[in-house]
Design brief:
By secondary structure, the protein is mainly beta. It is built from two helices and 28 strands. The protein has helices at about 1-25, 70-75; strands at about 30-35, 40-45, 50-55, 60-65, 85, 90, 95-100, 100-105, 115, 130-135, 140-145, 160-165, 170-180, 185, 190, 210, 215-220, 225-230, 245, 255-260, 270-280, 285-290, 295-300, 305, 315, 320-325, 340, 345-355. It has a nine-stranded antiparallel beta sheet with strand order 10-11-12-13-28-22-21-16-19, with no helix packed on it. Strand 17 (about 215-220) and strand 18 (about 225-230) form a beta hairpin. The longest helix is centred in the first third of the chain and has 24 residues, at about 1-25. The N and C termini lie far apart (about 80 Å).
Amino acid sequence: MWKVDRTLFLLICCVVVVFSADCSVSDVGIYELKVGSFSVKLTNWGAGIVSVVLPDKDGKLDDIVLGYDSLDDYKNDKTYFGAIVGRVANRIGGAKFTLNGTLYKLAANDGKNTLHGGVKGFSDVLWKVSKHQKTGSSPHITFFYQSYDGEEGFPGGLIVTVTYTITGHNLLVKMVAKATNKPTPVNLAQHTYWNLAGHNSGNILNNQVQIFGSKITEVDKDLIPTGKILPVKNTPYDLLKPTVISSKIKELGKGYDINYCIDNFDSSRKMKTAAFVHDKKSGRRMEVVTDQPGVQFYTGNYIKDVKGKGGFVYQEHAGLCLETQNYPDAVNHPNFPSEIVVPGKQYKHLMLFKFSIQA
């Protein structure tokens, strides 16, 4: 009898140990990738970027992304600093859509609309770390999240992985999702706020920006697409040539917050350059390359009195976002590229940040 009890006891102990080990992997933490003087820190809360440190033209190291010192601040963040946003990034008008004859009502968290996945999107959940190699020729980390059927109102289960890899001074982000049992819309985006002069250097208005999009998706007063695709020519949205942000931003009121349709996008989804950003003071230059049809350019218009790293207080235009994506509200506009993923098919989103120095 003792042998049976003892065996059962040992089995229970093993289960407890395995369960505890699994729980420890799921704890919120900071993870680093590093090659030489280039380092990236990430967190499994929202699978987000916490810092990107690299040298300027004089070799001075700076952290060039906005963020916080405390993990608790990321849990309470309302700005989406550094996070992966989804299941559907950007806005869904009226917090609803119809798919295959069924009306789905979503969680509304932006007035009557859905923004970045709802009240608790992918930016506000704990991801598991499935792989992590801190150093070497290609340091990388993979975050894993399983979204349940009905989460924030979206249909079907979804298995999602996000992998960050650095090589040289490049950061590759690979987002993959698989629908488990029902067709569902998917549009993931990486929501880092960049300031190439350093996160605590002030605003980004003197940065030069070039976006390879000759058209935008028109939006209404609530930033919901109307369905029209308009040319940027002779408007403040024309950034086809390198343009200092401050030279046109006043014509837009608060600033830029619009989706650009990337030129020459086709169904083959080949990687294309979406944008360049250049900070003359530091010499840092960032190229954004992607396989997605759109890129949201946002100039941090609603940042106000946000206490960030080292106690620095971020204000309006403290950073800029270049979020490669499908067109916003595509699920309600048949003329936009489809964002519906069906079981057996895979959603994939690649974006590459290439950093360099330009005098």
